[in-house]
Write a structure and sequence with these properties.
By secondary structure, this protein is of the alpha/beta class. It folds into 4 domains: 112 residues, 3-Layer(aba) Sandwich (Rossmann fold); 116 residues, Transcription Regulator spoIIAA, CATH 3.30.750; 87 residues, Transcription Regulator spoIIAA, CATH 3.30.750.200; 62 residues. Helices cover 35% and strands 22% of the residues. Strands 13-14-15-17-16 form a 5-stranded mixed barrel. The chain has a 4-stranded parallel sheet with strand order 1-2-3-4, sandwiched between helices. It has a 3-stranded parallel sheet with strand order 5-8-9, covered by helices on one side. β16 and β17 form a beta hairpin. α8 runs parallel beside α9 and α12 runs parallel beside α13. The structure holds S-adenosyl-L-homocysteine and iron/sulfur cluster. The site of S-adenosyl-L-homocysteine has 16 residues, from β11.
């Protein structure tokens, strides 16, 4: 989401004459777009911002801005803590960013804008100025979240859930495809509830409409909340060939006691049932997930239940995090905090299991042919390689091996014979 928002910042600032530079030292304006979902992300943002102090000393004209969730959460406190920061803008202020920068250029008075009142649809879509775009692009379809999982800060810093107009989304996808995109990832905190509040079309219908865009090869989305995974979405997997053979379905824990305290509103059994439903229409669908270890009160038995679930599902990838207290989130006040030592040990164990399963899954592709959307190339030890992703979201590196193509494969979907499955990628040759 922040990648998408950063793109938007680039677009709104272009009319003022700002263009991206490769080195931060060459910039007249630095925007640190932040995330606060976990403590570590917030710490990283502040440490990067800290580095801007020396830059500003060298170049007093430099404008330093902080945007995103940390800005939303901390507001003007950031100016007190880091007086060299000039602009603080929250998660719904992007439509006003250009005006803020323009004003600051004129009067050099720091601005803080963490207003949450703006609806996402109030932002006028600004046409993409770049002639060409990358093969795979993000498109935000909704913002905010109404779920209030007990550990999560998102609803407090990103606001209530709000969906974009489907016509605007489809138009944005069309524009991207015209400029070279072949794949889009539709983004929201809980895409399955897309459009419900506003009475727009539902998510499966949106998928259907997006899939009708000519020239678009693939559709992905994130994130789908297990509690709302509807029969309509399962039907979309059955009916829409452009929908990739992968779903990211964060389960967070394999223990019902922990899931309840997390307020996730599903049980382990519900989760397994949803997976069965998906597998009924796409038997080889790749599944990935988010996991939290060391949630307050998590016992060894609870953690074992998570390991057990991971094995049972056979995830092909996991993003696992140590639980951290977040401001506003009720779990920050829960008893039974797990020690840092136990969290570290559990995380390592879970990640070891994930590497094992991911490798196992990758090895199972050896000897098969997969469709790869090529997104670039590189040279490894003097050997030219194309790189891309399979529909099941594996990174695939491949050579032309005796089948030299004289054209550029970037943006094409090509068949690749997989020779080797590595822990985190596949290697093969063009078919
Ligand atoms: N809306 C998505 C998740 C967005 S946050 C969903 O509900 O699935 C991304 C991930 O960060 C979450 O899935 C969770 O695993 C992790 N996360 C969120 N809050 C956290 C916290 N307080 N401590 C550790 N991990 C957290
Ligand atoms: Fe956070 Fe839960 Fe909303 Fe995901 S669904 S963003 S975890 S509150």
């Amino acid at each position: 989401m922040n990648v998408y928002d950063s793109e938007m910042f680039k677009k709104v600032l272009r009319p003022l004459g700002y263009i991206p530079v490769d080195e931060v030292e060459d910039a007249d304006l630095v925007i640190v777009n932040t995330c606060t979902v976990r403590k570590k992300a917030e710490e990283k943002a502040f440490s990067f911002l800290g580095r801007m102090r020396a830059l500003k000393k060298k170049n007093p004209e430099l404008i330093v801005a902080i945007g995103g969730c940390v800005a939303q959460q901390e507001g003007s406190a950031i100016l007190r803590r880091m007086p060299y920061v000039d602009l603080v803008f929250g998660t719904r202020a992007y439509a006003r960013l250009a005006a803020m920068v323009e004003k600051f250029e004129y009067d050099r008075i720091p601005v803080v804008d963490v207003e949450m009142t703006m609806g996402i649809t109030d932002a006028t879509p600004i046409p993409e100025l770049d002639a060409e775009v990358e093969v795979s692009r993000f498109v935000t379809i909704m913002r905010g979240c109404d779920n209030f999982c007990s550990y999560c800060i998102v609803p407090y810093v990103r606001g209530r859930e709000e969906s974009r107009d489907p016509d605007a989304i489809v138009q944005e996808v069309r524009d991207l495809v015209e400029r070279g995109a072949r794949e889009v990832t539709l983004l929201g905190q809980n895409v399955n509830s897309y459009g419900k509040k506003e009475g727009l079309c539902d998510f499966p219908e949106l998928l259907r409409r997006v899939s009708e865009v000519e020239g678009l090869a693939r559709i992905r989305f994130a994130t789908s909340h297990p509690k709302d995974l509807s029969p309509g979405l399962v039907a979309a997997y059955r009916d829409l060939p452009k929908l990739c053979n992968h779903i990211h379905l964060p389960v967070q824990s394999g223990s019902n006691a922990v899931l309840k305290k997390m307020k996730r509103k599903y049980t382990r059994e519900d989760y397994m049932q949803r997976i069965e439903n998906l597998k009924a229409v796409r038997p080889d669908i790749a599944l990935t997930s988010d996991m939290i270890v060391g949630f307050p009160g998590e016992t060894e038995a609870d953690f074992d239940a998570t390991l057990d679930l991971v094995r049972e599902v056979g995830f092909s990838g996991i993003f696992a995090f140590k639980y951290s207290d977040r401001p506003h989130a009720p779990a920050a006040k829960f008893e039974g905090k797990v020690s840092e030592e136990d969290k570290t040990r559990r995380l390592a164990k879970l990640l070891d299991l994930e590497t094992e399963l991911s490798e196992k899954r990758n090895i199972s592709y050896a000897g098969t042919t997969v469709e790869v959307l090529v997104d670039g190339h590189k040279e490894v030890k003097g050997v030219f390689q194309w790189t891309g992703r399979s529909s099941c979201n594996r990174v695939v590196n491949f050579t032309e091996a005796g089948k030299p193509t004289d054209g550029n494969l970037v943006g094409k979907v090509v068949p690749v014979y997989i020779e080797t499955g590595l822990p985190h990628s596949l290697r093969g040759v063009l078919r």
